[in-house]
Write a structure and sequence with these properties.
homotetramer, six-stranded antiparallel sheet, 6 strands, L-fuculose-1-phosphate Aldolase, alpha+beta, about 240 residues, metal-binding (chains A, B, C, D)
Chain lengths: ~240, ~240, ~240, ~240
């Protein structure tokens, strides 16, 4: 497969993944964006900015280098969140795709400026521990380099908490909303689906049992490692 | 394009926009109404009153002058909320379309008689600040000129708070529900979609963090001006 | 039109109305039932008991006299709630159709044993005042004549509160769920739709404003009489 | 019908029941699993592990003996929860099918580590009393024999509370989620639907009336025995 074919397939996957967001009920209007990276070719493919999902086509997907520079003539403008994706791809070398949504239940926690506690096995199956929430950005960060700083504060959060981005493939940006990622675009979208579901579960769990605590570490381990790592025994591989 | 063609197109847009309301889950039954104004021709096109969405046709849309007088023979009766639309068009000269719904989450805030605080960027992308709630109408206003007074109390709210109707294209009428508007009918409907979504987010944000405060002014500025005004850089234009 | 044709049309309307219940999201499985009365012919048509909505046919609708006695050979067994319908038709002479559902939000209030307060105009457009909740049934009422006693406690509630069944075409049976009715089957189903919607609104209204009170009487009057009675000016008639 | 045909029909029923779970909104992705037992033949048919519902086929269903040993060549790997099903079939001899989901509202109660109180007749129609929640598993149970211990703690819960598995065909596993069962696969899936619905109702019932208590025993009896046992009079049989 030549480079052109590889890029065409990336565009098709990114296009299809973007359409999944409204179909899964994760976004309204043109909110949300999905990108995929090919580290060998040094390119990122991302959704164009503000194009209606009704009229968007595969060829509208935007191709950039790893710094976010446009690589194709007559390219549409990329998602305004591209600089956030660029930073995450740079500092999280294991990830292959990124999804940003404004899914209702995850945003509720982001606006509350709280991490989502690991209250159950649904959470533990995908996220190895609480899903963290970043600190607020400063005025300078917001006014001078907003989207880049958004990526940086995510990286800072993972570094300070010593989190592995693939073990916890999601974050809440304070006052804003969720980013998720994964080894590939399918996983990254699934992680957005799971995140919103566990956010919805956690809210009412607290309402029903205000003193509830997160699940035991050994239950967290059990469920996470049933599905991930060398000794995984979930699925067909 | 002659006037007849212009009016026909307005009817088609207003008809289609009304059908969007149940399709987007914003209303039940025949609740809700959409209108569009053409200030050059001095006409308003609005949904007829109480006609089932299943049988409603383009030709049923009602054409009035800027005072709300019917302009076509054999016209159906216009939405009973027409006088509210007339007042808003008169006092908000920049708006081109109005939408009224009883969408669940916005109504919940209207019934609670509370403005929706700007708790996050989803809100800030569309509404530059809190979405205000009017005062209650007086008995005299309600009994003597209810629909007109509804428009006037909206205008009063925006004047007292020095709000720009296009910077905050939505209001909650106390004990009643939301009105949204926009430069055109597409935007006005989108604003109803966004309003209900941010209302739903805000409720649970408060539940999760009872002491949460609205987002910083500079984050509000950043998100609003990413999408609006001269320096906007969201979308393709 | 002869009696046979009238009954056939009743069966078609009742059949179609029953299918609306799951389509409107008001029920799961085979919960819920709809009936219609023809007082001239002295008959009631009601859904059969426990027949799956996937296989149910028009001819399965059950025809009874005004005491609930089966009138057709090879009739299926009627809804087990038929005796409740019989009592309501007997004591509420103005109603022409009855709907019983287990719609989630109305049931939440019924289980909380609380009337739904008239918190806004969405409520007032259909229900002239709070939607009442019955007292609990006694052990004797439940064990000896449960379904009949359910109808009687509804009638008792309306009599004690001096409510007009057409002005408040809904009730919550304590610990159980809602019944709605109307002049005809279309209205009765619509009233179930509205009831669940206003129940959902009211819950969060209280959450957002714990001290909120019901809307002013003059606003209640205004909205109710916009749509009902001699001076109504909503709709096309 | 020979054994091969019986097994083929079991596979078809189990396949179809698994697809119902996402269609009923009970699960996301590949969460959840359904199995059916034939005690005469000594076999269990269960969903394969982690196969996408989009590509899963009838022939992918996994056949095991009553200890969970694979019986067919080239079998896919069974659901990782198979050992839980094996224990439940062994200790609950009256049940014919089992369903496990991560349905949102039931999980909220499981994560809150609370039984779902019988707050109304919707609950009583299917569950004769509160739906119990197990104790937490110990570290040893989780690390050494997780799925088997999950089955055992369910059995322990029913034994300690002296519950009849067919009178209360559901349980919440603490910190995890619901299992339901029934005489056959249709009933078992329906019980998952009802469980999530009553979980959703119960949460808001408590919010609306924090001091609410479960319904009277005689109302519980009435509704349960309307549908179950010798004197049932709901449905056509």
């Amino acid at each position: 497969m030549n480079n052109e074919q590889i890029i065409q397939q990336m565009k098709e996957r990114v296009f299809k993944a973007n359409l999944q967001l409204p179909n899964e009920g994760l976004i309204k209007l043109t909110w949300g964006n999905v990108s995929e990276i090919n580290r060998d070719l040094g390119i990122i493919v991302i959704k164009p900015s503000g194009v209606s999902y009704d009229t968007m086509q595969v060829k509208d997907m935007v191709v950039t280098d790893l710094q976010g520079n446009l690589l194709e003539p007559d390219s549409l403008r990329p998602s305004s969140d591209l600089p956030t994706h660029v930073v995450l791809y740079r500092d999280f070398p294991a990830i292959g795709a990124i999804v940003h949504t404004h899914s209702v239940h995850a945003v509720q926690w982001a606006q509350a400026k709280r991490a989502i506690p690991a209250y159950g096995t649904t959470h533990a199956d995908t996220f190895y521990g609480n899903v963290p929430c970043t600190r607020d950005l400063t005025e300078e960060e917001i006014t001078k380099r907003y989207e880049e700083a958004t990526g940086e504060v995510i990286v800072e959060t993972f570094r300070e908490k010593a989190l592995d981005p693939l073990a916890c493939p999601a974050v809440l940006v304070s006052g804003h909303g969720p980013f998720t990622w994964g080894e590939n675009v399918t996983k990254a979208v699934q992680n957005s689906v799971v995140l919103d579901e566990v956010a919805k579960m956690a809210t009412v769990t607290e309402q029903l049992s205000p003193k509830v605590t997160r699940i035991d570490q050994f239950l967290l381990d059990k469920h996470y490692y049933r599905k991930h790592g060398e000794n995984a025994y979930y699925g067909q591989n």
